[in-house]
């Protein structure tokens, strides 16, 4: 596995200029060249799947199945969606018919924004690079990838492979930490997509504002789960716990806490206990079955949340600083002011908060920042509708958890503190696309009886007191 080498800061401005020149060359205007780059992106991952699996293990201790299912196979599939879809996505669109303006040939053209910046995080260091990259390339942009220094093996591997598979005048990689990122953000970009925490998201947004650069922020937050006692309990426990233990809870859309009717709490907790035993009959600490926390700093932060909780640990609680292992842990009778509720957990800790009923659960959610995802487990359509219609979140999911991220045709995006904008599939293409309005008034309109200047003559001075009511602008 290659060593991670930081990009010299004095080279970053030159890389930016080279990407600008690459974009202006027009290489990506033809759809066929975009498709070629997307095909190369697919082969980049497919040809090196074993190496990516090893890199993800080194960075995060990911079990092979998680690496294949949630990263490697997933990004190959998503890049192929862009490859197959770009012909249709990039077609000009005609607006609804208008008798007055139809002869002027109104059209919306899909044009690339230019040179875009993608800043990716450590937790899914392949998925959260390839998915937005596919959208940016499909839209015809040149791209700078700023990879995470906290996932050094995967970032180093991508830095090695990107110039081998993709056009280096159109896609470049910068590796580094705060100084390198600071330098990058000083430069003018045509769009920035950042995935990560809210604190850094605000820094990115402030830097972008200096250049009036549009920004897509994929953040996170505390995604709640609301439980209906009439749900399929066994399925709910299995899917909620899976959503929390995948990648050791280091997923922006992971269930962060559960709101459950007070009288149903112990029944629900017992179902989680039985699920945990079925997931890890030996131990979650056994090699190759459970991911590790990414860095010592992240380990200490999550451990501190656990150490300071006033809730009751039902199972789990084991930690090992040397291996950065924190066991899947369920804590019941957690209060709203508990340490576990002070910030996004981003670890394998699942607080259970007892409430009286669904109305209290809805109020609890609405009193806090809008989450990235709101999960509901219920077989009652009215219960689900009540929750979804009376809350706000980036996504709303019933009777499932993280699997929604793989559902065809759905965007990934937050609202409010959980993010702004969206990407993935067609939504990624649209994020990196300028929808350019066009009107072309042909000369023949002034030659025949249907003279446009006769129909619209009221627009010229000296103005009349009124204009025809057929024009809604009047």
TrEMBL record:
One of its GO terms (biological process) is aldehyde metabolic process. SUPFAM superfamilies: ALDH-like. This is Aldehyde dehydrogenase. GO terms for molecular function: aldehyde dehydrogenase (NAD+) activity. It comes from the Eukaryota. Keywords: NAD, Oxidoreductase. Residues 11-435 form the Aldehyde dehydrogenase domain. The active site is at residues 218, 252. PROSITE patterns: ALDEHYDE_DEHYDR_CYS, ALDEHYDE_DEHYDR_GLU. CDD domains: ALDH_F14-YMR110C (cd07135). Belongs to the aldehyde dehydrogenase family. One of its GO terms (cellular component) is cytoplasm.
């Amino acid at each position: 596995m290659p060593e991670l080498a930081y990009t010299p800061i004095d080279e970053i401005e030159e890389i930016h200029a080279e990407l600008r020149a690459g974009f202006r060359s027009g290489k990506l205007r033809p759809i066929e060249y975009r498709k070629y780059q997307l095909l190369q992106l697919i082969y980049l991952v497919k040809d090196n799947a074993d190496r990516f699996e090893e890199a993800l293990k080194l960075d995060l201790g990911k079990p092979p199945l998680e690496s294949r299912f949630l990263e490697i196979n997933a990004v190959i599939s998503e890049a192929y969606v862009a490859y197959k879809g770009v012909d249709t996505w990039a077609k000009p669109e005609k607006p609804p018919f208008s008798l007055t303006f139809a002869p002027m040939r109104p059209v919306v053209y899909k044009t690339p924004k230019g040179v875009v910046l993608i800043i990716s995080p450590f937790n899914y260091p392949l998925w959260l690079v390839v998915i937005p990259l596919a959208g940016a390339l499909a839209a015809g942009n040149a791209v700078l990838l700023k990879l995470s220094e906290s996932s050094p093996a995967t970032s180093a591997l991508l830095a090695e492979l990107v110039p081998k598979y993709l056009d280096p005048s159109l896609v470049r990689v910068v590796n580094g930490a705060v100084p390198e990122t600071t330098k990058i953000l000083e430069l003018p970009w045509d769009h920035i997509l950042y995935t990560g925490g809210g604190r850094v998201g605000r820094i990115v947004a402030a830097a972008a504002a200096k250049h009036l650069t549009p920004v897509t922020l994929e953040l996170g937050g505390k995604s709640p789960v609301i439980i209906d006692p009439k749900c399929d309990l066994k399925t709910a426990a299995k899917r909620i716990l899976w959503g929390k233990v995948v990648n050791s809870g280091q997923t922006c859309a992971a269930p962060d806490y559960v709101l459950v009717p007070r009288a149903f709490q112990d029944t629900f907790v017992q179902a989680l206990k039985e699920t945990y035993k079925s997931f890890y009959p030996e131990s979650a600490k056994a090699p190759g079955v459970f991911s590790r926390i990414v860095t010592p700093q992240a380990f200490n932060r999550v451990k501190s949340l656990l150490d300071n909780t006033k809730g009751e640990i039902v199972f789990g609680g084991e930690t090992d600083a040397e291996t950065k292992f924190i066991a899947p842990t369920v804590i019941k009778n957690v209060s709203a002011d508990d340490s576990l509720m002070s910030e996004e957990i981003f670890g394998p800790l699942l607080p259970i908060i007892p409430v009286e009923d669904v109305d209290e659960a809805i109020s609890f959610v609405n009193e806090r920042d809008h989450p990235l995802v709101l999960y509901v487990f219920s077989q009652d359509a009215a219960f689900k509708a009540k929750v979804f219609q009376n809350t706000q979140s980036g996504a709303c999911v019933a009777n499932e958890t993280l699997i929604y991220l793989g559902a065809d045709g759905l965007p990934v995006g937050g609202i409010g503190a959980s993010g702004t904008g969206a990407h993935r599939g067609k939504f990624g293409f649209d994020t990196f696309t300028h929808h350019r309005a066009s009107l072309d008034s042909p000369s023949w309109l002034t030659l025949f009886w249907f003279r446009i200047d006769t129909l619209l003559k009221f627009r010229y001075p000296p103005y009349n007191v009124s204009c025809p009511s057929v024009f809604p602008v009047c």
